[in-house]
Structure formats: structure tokens, C-alpha cells
Write a structure and sequence with these properties.
about 30% helix; about 450 residues; alpha/beta
Length: about 450
Amino acid sequence: MTVRSADVAIIGGGSGGYAAALRAAELGKKVVVIEADKVGGTCLHRGCVPTKALLHVGETADAVREGPSLGVKATLDAIDVPAMHAFRTDLVAKKYKGLQGLLSARGVEIVAGHGRLASPGVIEVEGEPIAATDIIVATGARTRTLGIELGGRILSSETALELDEVPSQAIVLGGGVIGVEFASLWRSLGAEVTVVEAADSLVPAEDEILRQQLSRAFRRRGIQTRLGSPFVAVTQDTQQVRVELADGSVLTGDYLLVAVGREPAADGIGLEEAGVVLDRGFVVVDERLRTTVPGIWAVGDIVAGPQLAHRGFQHGIAVAERIAGQDPTVVSDELVPRVVYSSPELASVGITRRAAEERYGTDGIRVVDYNLAGNARTEILGGGGVARVIRRVDGPVVGVHLAGPRVGELITEAQLVIGWDAHPEDVVPFIHAHPTQSEALSEAFLALAGKPLHTL
């Protein structure tokens, strides 16, 4: 049998896999990507992109409702669900076609099928061996279910994207990023929504001020929450779904979304048989993303840490460059920006106030909270919010946490400030255009530098 060979073989064509493929090809490597579905992975086809497309529909619906208060005589008659899904699928199709063209133009070979490590340096795809000097595993993650059987009126985030109606009453199990985004979306489309979260707050991994902001906004929007309430049973019939909570109460709705997180999809591909060590399902790697077997690398959601497409994307680029003999900067999980595309949006980078106090001591940090109600652009957009900036005393900024309309667009500046160990005094001389929301960060930096203008 003729053995196909490549310099780099990648199992998985999602964000981490295709980024590695493009960069490795750019650096002169012969690259093969093994993908069982479509290149682009969950993010493009069933996650980030289509979800944000539908959230834009929800944002537009809210804008129509608010139109009369701005002098725009408009009414929202209904949500055209088929047209909404056409917008989503057309957008994904365009991005998929563009990605296919880009990979083809770089000479990346796509092999359809399930890849499995036969031995270090060899991958089998539907019985066909592919030999490679370096192998990158980028198989991503899948929905965690906690034993709940999906189907019918019990949805995963992927099936919820394709729901052919707007629920009348929806229950969301899980108050993390996926859960609050769908809760926000469905509420904007007109549904009554209840979020069930076993922890004591929504988005429990975020800074306390963002959790507070989101909870208040959800209350104003009429989104119900049941916090500190683990579920004990889920049942359904043809008409409704029932969720029994640990306190004995029962919730009913048209649909239940199971959004309790995602787990690494690293099993069944021969990793452990090849000698690669796993821990709780995640692939064990060093800071340069090398596994315990030389020549085998892992990137993205199968590596413990924030399960975000842009983290996997940066992982892929870094590994491709290392394979080519370069020494790129190590990808720090603390410098990965996080955005929750709910209404209001949440955006953060660096460490939370609690983590900063634990690391540097309560007296070792300074915190400024700038109320976005004082920002003209935010008020024009019809929202409020907050910008929390945390610095070490007489030291650099270590955390930025934002809540408000479209604050996700501000987080890159914050990432640069933290990534470059900048002090607020370093940032203050730079001019922020007026009126923009970025001025909120400027005001917070001014306050931390001892030069408050619009804060006391």
C-alpha cells in the first residue's frame, strides 16, 4: 500500500486546526488536514458565527421595539423564523466557501474522514495510513449533557440554533456563556425564559461586577433565574419538558436547552494508545503545546483552559511556527480575551478582583469602576454598564472587566495594555476619540493614575 506523507498532518479542521494548516503551509510545509465534517469546525458551523448571527437578529428586534422612543415610528409584527435561519445559513455558507478557497490557495490537502493515531508519526483515515513528521491534534469539544438524553424538546446549543420556532417558554440549564447568550437571544425574540444555574450566580467564572451587571439586566428584561438550584430530573412528552430542582420545585416549558459546558473530544482517536497522556479527558501539554510524545502536538479545546475559538486559533499558529523552527510567544490563558454576547455584552481579560487580591493581597491592588452611564456614546446606544480596571499598586494593569452595549469591541485595547505590562500612566497620554465607548477605559486609566476627571 502506498503511504501518503506530509510534513504536518492535522486531525481536525476547526479554528485551531485550520489556523495551524494555513500558517504551516505559509512557512513552506506540506500540510494535510483530516476532517470528518467540514473545515471551520463547531465555531463556524454550529457555534460562534451562527449564534452571533441570531443574536444580531435579536438585537435588531429590540431596536425596533425601542424605535418609537427615538422618534422612529416602527412596530415589531413578528419574527420570520425561516428568513432568520436563511440569514444565518447564508452567512455561514459564505464564510465556509471563503475558508475552503483559502486552504486550497495555500495548497492544504483536505482528507475527509475520521483520523486516528495508528502510531507516533502515522494517522489512519478510514484504513488509509498518512505519515507525517509532526501531528497536530485539534479535535475540539462537544456538548456536556450530565446524563440528560438529548432529543425532542431537549436541545443542545447546536440543535437550538436550528429550532423552527421561537419558544413560548424556554428553560436554559446552565448560566455560563452559552446559556446566557441563548437566554438573551430567546428573550429578544419574544420568549419567556428561565435560567437554572447550580452556582450562586450567572457566568460564575467572571468578575463579581460583571455577574452583578448581568443579573440586574436580566431582571429588567424579565429573564427569570433560579440560582444555586441544581436539577435532579428532566422529563418530556410531546407537549412540554419538565425540570425538577433539588429544592423540590418543578419548572415546565416548551423546550429545555442543556448548556452545562463542553467537554474535550479527545477520546477514540488513539491518543493514549500512542502514549499521549490525558488528564480528565484533556490532552496534557507543556506551555509550548507539546504532548508527552515527541512530534505530537495538541491545540484548542482539547487543552485545558478557556474553550474559545480565538484561543485555539492562536494555539494553531504558534504550533505551526514552532514546527517550522521559530520561537513564538507562549499563549497565556490570562491574556485570552473573553466576550459574552448577551444583552448587555460582557468582556474581560486578565484576572478578576478576587484573583488579584489572592495573588497580590487586598492592599496590593487598586480598583476603579467607571460607570458607563457617564459615557455619551453608551447612552446614545441606549444602555449603561461599567468598566472595572484593576492594577497593582504602583504597578501594571492586571485585569479589565466591561459590561455594556458592544463592549466586546473594546477588549483588544485592554489586552494590549495587560499583555505589555503597561501602567495606567503609560496609557493616559494616548487620546481616545470623542464620543466613543473607549473613553470609558481612558477615564478608568486616568483615575488609576491619580488624575480623575469624570470620576470622584
